[in-house]
């Protein structure tokens, strides 16, 4: 693909896809990330703990 | 070799081998596990990091998550050069190869259907930011002479603020309609958290579009043409991605 320059993929764009996209396997499986929403919440908690001094103004949207 | 099995993607068999120096999420090179005419791309991961409990703990560690997400993406990226992979959610782990085979069998029909739908397609990400600074509006431009002046100023500010969001909203809606009409499918992601994206402005659209690889150039041109259409709006394009956002069942 040469239509756009390859830049390093931003982590946030990657996490949008890896934590909310992709096939979710359920059923006869031993381990998996159990719940999308749970991960989403974990991630937000994580971000706010890393950036405690920068509160998100958009919390109501997430 | 012992350990758990981390699965990145399911593909149709591909002739070209993966780059030999490619490393998976725990450093182990990914390989194909073929079963019933489908290939699961798998690498070995240690139980101490990828069993359910440590995995959940690690997911709260941004450095670990970053490293794992990048390694996962590296494998998917390598796969897109040889086939159209169906990516799995980050952190899909099985106890052993036979668990992977059982999963392939159980989901065989779904996988085939989705692989057909995605064949030759890529995903493009489009984000719109409203760049105006809402904080400015929160402070009166000049000291109000009276209570009535103050209220008048506040009303004017609220109005201009609202107008700006309305403009941003209708711009995004229009752009999304236009791009959706061109694309085969579209998904809306929640607006991004600025603490993580470090982006300026407010993210008003965060969308993904499924586009045939052959029409990608046209799609990129379509997005480029809308840049600068409305002052104060910033448009960002990312991709081409493997079709992460379209790996679920079609809506």
UniProtKB/TrEMBL annotation, chain A:
Where is the protein found, in the record's own terms?
Gas vesicle
For this protein, the record's Pfam families field holds: Gas_vesicle
- Report whether Protease shows up as a keyword of the record: no
Gene Ontology MF, one = structural molecule activity
| InterPro entries, per the entry | Gas-vesicle_GvpA-like (IPR000638), GvpA (IPR050530)
Cellular component (GO) terms are: gas vesicle; vesicle membrane
This protein's UniProt keywords: Gas vesicle
Per the record, the similarity remark reads: Belongs to the gas vesicle GvpA family.
Q: Which PANTHER family does the protein's record reference?
A: GAS VESICLE PROTEIN A1 (PTHR35344:SF4), GAS VESICLE STRUCTURAL PROTEIN 2-RELATED (PTHR35344)
Mind telling me what this protein is named?
Gas vesicle protein
Species this chain originates from:
Streptomyces luteogriseus
UniProtKB/TrEMBL annotation, chain B:
The organism's superkingdom is given as Bacteria
Q: What is its main location?
A: other
Keyword 4Fe-4S in the entry? The reply is: no
The record's keywords, sorted A to Z, are:
Gas vesicle
Which example biological process does GO assign this protein?
Answer: gas vesicle organization
Gene Ontology CC annotations of this record: gas vesicle
Q: Where is this region: Disordered?
A: 133-159
Claim: Iron is one of the keywords in the record: no
Record localization: Gas vesicle
The cross-references to InterPro entries, in alphabetical order and at most eight, read: GvpL/GvpF
Do you know which Pfam families this protein is assigned to? GvpL_GvpF
PANTHER family per the record?
PROTEIN GVPL 2
Family to which the UniProt record says this protein belongs: Belongs to the gas vesicle GvpF/GvpL family.
For this entry, the protein name equals Gas vesicle synthesis protein
């Amino acid at each position: 693909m040469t239509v756009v320059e390859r830049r390093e993929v931003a982590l946030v764009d990657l996490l949008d896809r890896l934590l909310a996209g992709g096939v979710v396997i359920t059923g006869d499986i031993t381990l998996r990330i159990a719940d999308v929403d749970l991960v989403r919440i974990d991630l937000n908690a994580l971000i706010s703990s890393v950036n405690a001094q920068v509160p998100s103004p958009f919390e109501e949207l997430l | 070799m012992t350990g758990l099995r981390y699965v990145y993607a399911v593909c149709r068999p591909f002739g070209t081998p993966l780059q030999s120096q490619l490393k998976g999420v725990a450093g182990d090179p990914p390989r194909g596990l073929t079963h019933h005419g489908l290939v699961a791309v798998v690498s070995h991961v240690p139980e101490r990091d990828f069993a359910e409990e440590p995995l959940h703990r690690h997911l709260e560690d941004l450095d670990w998550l970053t490293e794992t997400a990048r390694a996962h993406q590296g494998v998917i990226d390598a796969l897109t050069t040889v086939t159209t992979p169906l990516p799995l959610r980050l952190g899909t782990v099985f106890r052993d190869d036979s668990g992977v085979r059982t999963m392939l069998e159980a989901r065989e029909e779904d996988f085939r259907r989705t692989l057909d739908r995605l064949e030759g397609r890529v995903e493009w990400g489009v984000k719109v930011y409203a760049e105006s600074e809402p904080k400015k509006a929160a402070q009166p431009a000049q000291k109000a002479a009276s209570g009535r002046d103050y209220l008048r100023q506040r009303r004017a500010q609220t109005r201009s603020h609202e107008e700006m969001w309305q403009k941003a909203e209708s711009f995004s809606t229009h752009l999304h309609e236009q791009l959706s009409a061109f694309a085969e499918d579209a998904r809306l992601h929640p607006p991004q958290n600025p603490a993580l994206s470090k982006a300026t402005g407010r993210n008003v659209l965060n969308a993904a579009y499924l586009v045939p690889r052959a029409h990608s150039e046209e799609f990129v041109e379509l997005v480029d043409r809308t840049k600068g259409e409305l002052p104060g709006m910033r448009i960002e394009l990312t991709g081409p991605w493997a079709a992460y956002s379209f790996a679920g069942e079609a809506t």
